[in-house]
Amino acid sequence: MKKRLNNSFLVNIAVLASGSFIAQGIGALTIPVLTRIYTPEDLGLYTYIISIAAIFLSVVNTRYDVSIVTEPEERNVYPLIKLSLIVGGIVTIIASIGGYVFFSFKGMPGYLSIYLFVIIASYAIINVLTAYNNRRKEYKVISSVYVLRTGTQNIGAILLGILSRSIHCLLLPYAIGQLLGIKRQMKPLQKYWREVISVPANKVKEVAFKHKKQFYFSTPALLANSLSYSIITIFIEMLYGMTQVGFYSISVRLLGLPLALIGGNVSKVFLEQASAEYNEHKHFSYSFKKTFILLLIIAIPMVLVLTLLATPICTFVFGKEWAVAGKYIAILAPMFGIRFITSAMSPAFVIINRQGLELILQMVFLVCGVLSYTISQIYHLEIIDFVTLISATFSVAYLIYFLVIYKYSKKIN
Predict the structure, then answer these.
(1) What's the count of helices (H) and strands (E) in the chain, helices before strands?
(2) Sign of CA dihedral 60, 283, 289, 358
(3) Residue 80's closest CA among 95, 65, 91, 58?
(4) Is the pLDDT of residue 29 over 60?
């Protein structure tokens, strides 16, 4: 079994990483152009809107989409798909209305909630289709649509920005990009679509109850995690203004490249293979060890390079105005290195059905964010100090998170 897992593990990651490499390559190459077309304030406002949407993106299906991958009985897959889509529609409407109220409170245009609706609704569908593709090991499909979406979002922002610079030139390509590729992802499921629609309500309720921990624990846990990162953007705007949000957004975008390129893909494969190992042996120590070693080998040089060279690289690539983004990268790099490893293995709590524990651990991140904001506000700290507090507190939280996953990966004697 180890040989089979090892071979498929590397092949699947290679397929996913190839698409991510192209997609993130497009993203990396377009950043220097975007920083010359748009001002830090433009990119700050764009990041602010996306951060609001990001709070809901991973939990729009209340994590029932993850159960599509881990569910051992094939007869429950179609009910889970229907359940995930229904819940996704409800959450999208609620989040969009909440977004409209929030934007109005902040004195921002109400039409921004339309972008919010399109982005969240598309994710509600994409999450389900990606989970089904993952279950069927259709990694080439996942990889190809990721390239399509990322390319559309980044290149579209450049083309529209050349014609007329505005927030619409950033948000419109992002929203359109999310809609592209849905038809291709749906193709494997298309011939079974009537079966999905015809699933009776009692069966939908049955799988909802069976996987209720996803709703009660995993969803609040991931919501806390999403909020803990999105709220940093909100806090920076409140404390230091939208221009600093722009500088911070570029630093996080660059630091997020390895997470998107490798970490997210490793996580998908880890979920599928660790689930198989756990279902057969009631532990996933082999999948954990293999994944950890791979991620550690990548994380160490990545953190060293970013810590030492981020500032001169940002100055050279993006211009002198963006040197401050390099300073933020150098401070945040160690935390992102730990996050890179831990986040890839975070599906472990779903595998071992310990979503309640995950909720507690994820709440720690939210506490860290609020604590850093409170200290910075009380003592009137500079933004560099605020970013340092975020990096330090989140690093400790991720280390604790990682050690708990390690504990539960081992064999129970």
Answers:
(1) 19, 0
(2) positive
(3) 65
(4) yes
pLDDT digits (tens, 9 = 90+) for 253-304: 888 877 766 787 788 789 888 988 998 888 999 999 999 999 999 999 999 9
Provide the token pair at 400. Answer: 């604790």
Strand boundaries in 230-357, DSSP class E = none
Q: How many CA atoms lie within 13 A of 371 on its CB side?
A: 14
As a whole number of angstroms, the distance between CA 252 and CA 202 comes to 44
The answer to whether the beta carbons of residues 20 and 146 sit under 8 Å apart is yes
Residues in the chain, total: 413
How far apart CA 401 and CA 395 sit, in angstroms, is: 10
The residue type found at 261 is: L
Global pTM exceeds 0.90? no
The pLDDT tens digits for 149-207 are: 999 999 999 999 998 888 999 999 999 999 999 999 999 898 899 999 999 999 999 99
- Both tokens assigned to 143: 């990889």
For 83-227, list the strands marked E by DSSP. none
Report the percent of the chain where pLDDT is more than 70: 95
| Burial label, 196 (beta-carbon count in 10 A; 0-12, 13-18, 19+) | middle
- Residue 285 sits at the vertex; the CA angle it makes with 279 and 291, to the nearest 5 degrees, is 105
At residue 280, what is the residue type? Answer: E
Sign of CA dihedral 71, 75, 81, 86: negative
- The rounded distance, in Å, linking the Cα atoms of 372 and 232 is 9
